[in-house]
Amino acid sequence: MARYGFVVDLTTCVGCNACVAACTTENETPYWDGLYRTHVEDVSFGSFPDSGRAIIPRLCMHCENAPCVRVCPTGASYKTADGIVLVDADKCMGCGYCIAACPFGARYRYEKEAVNKANEIFGKDAGHQAPHVDKCTYCVHRVKEGREPACVAVCPAHARVFGDLDDPNSEVSKLVESGKAQPIGDPGPQPKTYYVR
Amino acid sequence: MPPEARIRLRLIRRLTRHEGSVMKAGLSRRTFIKAGAAAGAGLMFLKYVGTSATETLAQATAGEIEWKPNVCNLCPSFCGIQVAVKEVDGQKRAVKIEGDPGHSFNQGHTCARGQSGLRLLYSPDRIKKPLIRVKGSKRGEWNFKAVSWDEAYKHVMQVAQDNKIMPWEMTAMGGWLVCSLYGSYLLPFMRASQIPNLVGSTIQRCMYGQVLGLDSALGTFNAHDEVSSDYARAKFGLNFRSNAALTASTGRIVSYTEGLANGATVVTLDPRLTEAARPGEMWLSIKPGTDGAFLLAVMHEILTSGTYDAEFLATHTNAPFLAYMDGKMLRLAMDAGPNGTPGRFYVVDKNTGKVVAVPGVSNRNDKAVDGSSVSPALDATASWNGKPVKSVFSFLRERTAGFTAEWASEITGIDTKTIDSVAKQFSQTNPAMVYSGWADGRYDTSPMTWKTAAMIQALIGGIDRPGGWYYTGKQHELIKDYWDNMAKGEPTLEPDTPGVRLPLIRQAIFNDPSQWMHGFPGISEVWNENQRAKGKPSVPFNLFTDLGLSESVEGKLQYKGKPYQTRAIGIAATNPVRSFFSSEDQKALFSNENIKIIVDIDVLPTDTAAYADVILPDLTYLERPEVLMDSQSADMTFASRTPAVPPVVDGKHLLDIFLDFSQRMGSYEPYVKTLATNLGADPNATLKTFNDLRQNGRSVVPALREMAVAHEAPGFGLTAEKMGKDLEKGAITLKTKDEIVAESGVPRKYPAPTPSGRIELYSMLFADLTTLAGGEYDPHMDPLLMYTDTVFRDGLAAGESLGSDEFYMTYGHIPTMTHTSTSDNDLLVAVTEQKPDLYMRVWMNTKRAAKLGLKDNDTVVLKNTRADLQVESPIFVTDLIRPDTLFFPAPFGAENKAQTSAVGLGAAYNKLVPRQIEPIAAGTMASQFTVKVSKAAEGKG
Amino acid sequence: MIASSYVQQSAWGWQIAAYLFLGGLGGAVGALGIGIERFVNKDGRIGLLSAMWGFVFLAVGSGLLVLDLLNPFNAIFFWRNPGSWIFWGILSLSGYLVSSVLYSVACAKDSPFLRPIADTFPKLQEWQNVTGIVSIALGTFVTVYTGFLLSAAQGIPLWHNAGLPVLFTISAFSTGCAFLMLALWSRRHELHNLFNGIAKLDAALIGAEVVVLFALYNSAIHSGAAWYSVNSLLGNWVFVVGFLALGLIVPLAIELFEIMSDGESEASRMAARLLPLVSVFILIGGYLLRRFMLLGGYYQFPW
Question: Which terminus of chain A is more solvent-facing, meaning fewer CB atoms within 10 Å of its CB: N or C?
Fold first, then answer.
């Protein structure tokens, strides 16, 4: 059984935002409401001329010990055997507890109006047919077919890497094992999305 | 709008070495997420009863998908893509765009713009049918009625007929699409129709500033299409005036970041800390317009430390050519050859100390005209025809002697030690590379700045080798065939002429009255003549510029005593109202009633379309077949397009529209025959094929592609059938750059397309430009090298300080939005609006803002100090930009309300840009002024 | 940490604030009132009134919750994860709705108007102790859990601490006291001692609430996001005036004065007459506290 994880390489990201656009078109998320499964943060610091800029793509951490799974009353939020945290829209009642509980801001509400508009924007069989809480799925529908998540495939800077953390030959496991890739933020939930700085 | 209120207090540690500092941040807008609607709750219950338990999964590429190959058209990178097509409700729908892994430029990736192409295809704003202006409405008003294609064409021809509009009274305007892809398809139309006027919007705005300088050394013409920087293998990179090239153009992102991952040290010169600068080793906040000085300091270091590639310079460049001063003008010792081509040059042979003649057109200097071996001396002083002469290289040493790091420091504002250190690092790293950039219509010093960059590359031998500048795969093919043909005494088809030789041929045609049956040459040449007659400066490289157009429209242009009027304008895929000098001037031009008919061919209701009389809907790249396309890669990659879905609107391919017009103008046959000849096909057979296709309402474009494939395939040992079939699956890469260079590398194996065939430190093209311009020496086009300060306004000489409310003005693009093609796209707008401060407002340094009493997001008025122009914009107060400079993100300011996503976003930069042209090619100087800043009145902005 | 930013949570809006308020209030009213009836003052009318108001508050609160859901029908799956506070919340709240009715029917025997109902279900009178104590337990649980609910949000420092559940519990019982005083106002002379007792209890609760708030404030000073949250609240006049001043300090002052005075002086009598107003302030303050705890909930993100 694989244990999927992710590495974001902050040293090569050039802030092109292709990942945001790719994820949005792949996963048919309500960009018209400013809602996305992944974001590219862009922060500046320091005083000129010693100013600096950090461009930080972020997505769901798919935590081993995910708070969102723990707090979900209906079990709609769950983790698969290979470590991908998903939301079952057929069970999600949209209470938003998981949104509050996630220390990484990975989730948002996919509301009814958005579902309706999605059918207009993305076509009649747009993937989201019920309102629910939405989040990054590591593009599990692609992973199942042996393809990479959309954001990983599109990234021209190779700033996103996806793979099996338990496979010693995978790029992600090498980066994590070597210590080059580290978690950021609250380590309690044991995030599986790591960062190279 | 972001759903969460974003209030940031930054307690930040640097990514790399330094300690950061706590910074107070400003508040930004707050919005609240809407609560679930109470209304319809009953329906909600009914709808979701009984759904089966399945996972919530994205759907775009799940299920039955068909992949169709295509080439992205959101920008002139032309990345190879694959489009996922699904059947939805019985109809084919494009659901996802991905990079084509077979395309060597973007290697399977795309940028945010490429991803958003679907939203162009399905944009509600698209022009859906041909439109004719409603009678009584004025140009500028969006008031049109939909008609059939026949009606639209009839109307245009009727107006032309009623007003007896002659071919020379017509002007065509084309954008980057026409420039980069359809040039060879449009020009035969113009020639056949006897229309001598074409204005390429990219020509003055982005190309000439950069390309002529850079290309003068390499012999290329359209740098970003013909020169490919090998960022991936350069160990040291010097990047200047370039952001979007490295953060939006996918192929360049791929190569640039590969270089970074390989441990390349990159130093970026930019007034602000761009996305491109961020991952590099060092960001140097350089004073705007002074990059040339920095480059000269690097060149100085290379020359004084001896780290240049002496072998390369002596053998393959004109560094050893003997030259002399003729007044202020440096001239080569040479004998003319037949038809004005160079006959001989002269060098000093190291071994004998004698002056030896070398061939006029060659890639090597190591064989004399008489066949004996020569070892050209780089540093040389001699006598030739009684004149004292020195080598070009010796002159270069002289000229650069004063360009020390200290000298550059005064000008650039960067400290001496840093410049010295960077220059040393550059000269000592092998391979080091100056990044070749993309567009730079900013200053009158831009051509010389880029010439300097190209000369540095030449000095270190960084041409057609790993970590250097490669000619693209296509250019190599053209160059090789051109010289091979010449050796065999065979002609080369006009569109297959390599590099800068092609536009020179074209310029000769457009400027020569004897090339036109009616005897009227292009307006820009007439304008030149008029200038010379008045003793005023003319523009030597005037191909496809707008020189004289407004005078012609206004009826103020005369040719041979007769008025030379412009009374019809045809616009294809360009948006001058938004992208060219002074928005108001463009609007006035198009509003002039002397123009009886304006036809605009476009996909979206641009700001320029609002000034048309007739609008014809083009098809997006996702809905149309395409001609054969090459790529900006140094590998040889071909690609094309297969329609992903049937046309969403009642549109036509641009080329079919040209043919429709040519049919009605009586130029159809010669047009088609020339197209055929240019592709090596039989003219009569082609005519028949086209007639058959058109009679059945079908596009000729697939036939054009077939012809091009048949033309190309044999050169690569393929059958036309095989190549055609492979193209239907995706991009094909037939040769790698290393294979190509081994076979036909320039200049080591084949001559460059420069006049002399060498890489030219002394640019013969620039020398000719001076002659064309009337002979008076202008340091901006010195054939070797001359430094001139970038002067931002009268009275602001180097050393003088700006006023307390005065700033330098820079502009540029952002990774998510770069051209009109990307602006009215709801997905790109949404992603851009995630960072409204960084992406959409004018950047101002924190301390300056404080001094002026300005806060983040205040709206200010920017007044041009050189012209009566101003624009308003909210500001982004930041420490990422130097205090004396503002940055204006350029791709905004749409005014046509029919662009539902773009209208009202940001501010329009070209409202601020006056008509000031640089002397070589009328480049726009779009950053060469200062602005005064004041707070806008309340309630505005 | 690469960087740090504070972003306001937008998962839960006023509906949830109202639910937290009504949940705390309803559970407390029920627990207190039933507790009084069972152990202090065997007056069925008090028990009935408390249990049923508790029912109403919890029902309305739940209604708001349901309306706030994206897909209420899926609420039937609430039982699937006992690890979630919501599981326990729904369980205890529904339990209370049932047990409080059962209890109230028995209480109805003390109401001349409603006695027939009580007589229809004699068994319930037998079980009144059970239903009563169960209702007290469930009501208390509902009140307490509303605080613990928020504490699971480990990315929001203002919520994720030991103090918040304590604060909410104390505050809820304070609102419960306040409501009971309002509800029993017409019988204040008759239930003079009970009234005093409730007022004393409320004063003590408010006093404790002030201490807990100070403790939260104190621990927040040295923490990034928590301090940002606290600061944003203290900068909001509605919070400061509506909750801190009118919801806490003013009621505490008036109650203390009323308790400590002899009931004879003019001032003392005025204070007594102000008690309903004080109750209203406390109730409004109770809602505002929860509303502002939600509004002031900032995530601390590592970017």
Answer: N
